[in-house]
Amino acid sequence: MHQPEDNEINMAQVKIITLTTDWGPRDHYAGVVKGAILSKLPDARIVDITHQIPPFSVKQASFILRNTYPHFPAGTVHIVGVNTEESEITPHIALEYNNHFFIGADNGIFTLMFDGLPEKIVELTIPQDSGHFIFSTRDRFVKAAVHLANGKPVEELGDVRNELKALISMQPQINGNIISGRVIYIDNYENVFLNITEKEFLETGMRRKFSLNIKGKTHPVNIVRNAYSDVPEGEIALLFSTTGYLEIAINKGNASSLLGLRNDDVVLIEFAR
Q1: Using an 8 Å Cβ cutoff, are 201 and 269 in contact?
Q2: Residue 105 and residue 87: Cα distance in Å, rounded?
Q3: Can you say whether residue 15 is alpha, beta or left, with left for phi > 0 and alpha for psi between -120 and 50 degrees?
Q4: CATH 3.40.50.10790 residue ranges in the chain?
Q5: For the segment 67-120, what is each residue's pLDDT rounded down to a tens digit?
Q6: What's the burial of 214, exposed, middle or buried (CB within 10 Å: 0-12/13-18/19+)?
Q7: d(CA 20, CA 77)
Q8: What angle do CA 263, 266, 270 make, to 5 degrees?
Q9: How far apart are CA 44 and CA 149, in angstroms?
């Protein structure tokens, strides 16, 4: 039988907790939550996915988490500190999906992240550490995260539910030869991501020529590239990103600013008849 070396890691024993928030890098909130986690679970490994989600933007948070969480080991606990204020229609929940655990407000983010219903959902009933209800991530989510990171059942955290709040899906509209997509994310390089998957593009296009229409202007882009450098500097490149979504980029340029695109803007892909 193989005996693990001293430097080998037993992933079942690693207690990973990730943080995805809209707090920004300037304030003290992330530090407070990390301190609270380590006070309760000194051997936790805390990973900052990002703290720069635009305030209250569950769509941006869902895109980042959807494309990030599968790369973490099974059993990872993900705290979602975006738009976390609790109400009757947005309760605090914990859930299990695809061998990962998520804690946050049921504000629609999870239906955008997942392709199906989670295996387990509970509405949190654990008490907050404070009588003030303005920092739930510290006062309630940390307790739930430590509980799950220690391998305890999600069902012990609250009342079982069987549904999530739904937001409008990130699916594009397909009408004959036209795919009407929307901007769902703009990265730090100002590359623009559309809600059009490679499967949707290929099934609709069937290898036909196409044109790219942005705000009423047709751009001479009719080939999906494999790399940004497949076009000269300053030219538009259309390609499928590592996220699986269609991406509009400008080689060594800023596509969002130069094309005037913002989140939720419509982009049309029109295929030849």
Answers
A1: yes
A2: 9
A3: beta
A4: 11-161
A5: 999 999 999 999 999 999 888 888 999 999 999 999 999 999 999 899 889 999
A6: buried
A7: 11
A8: 145
A9: 8
Residue pair 249/242 in contact by the 8 Å Cβ criterion? no
* Residue linked to tokens 């509209």: 173
Topology classification of domain 173-271: Elongation Factor Tu (Ef-tu); domain 3 (2.40.30)
Return the number of other C-beta atoms located less than 10 Å from residue 228's C-beta. 18
pTM score of the predicted model:
0.86
Distance between CA 82 and CA 58 in Å, rounded? 7
CATH fold label, 11-161: Rossmann fold (3.40.50)
Do the Cβ atoms of 86 and 127 come closer than 8 Å?
no
Place of tokens 């654990």: 126
Retrieve residue 74's tokens. Answer: 């099974």
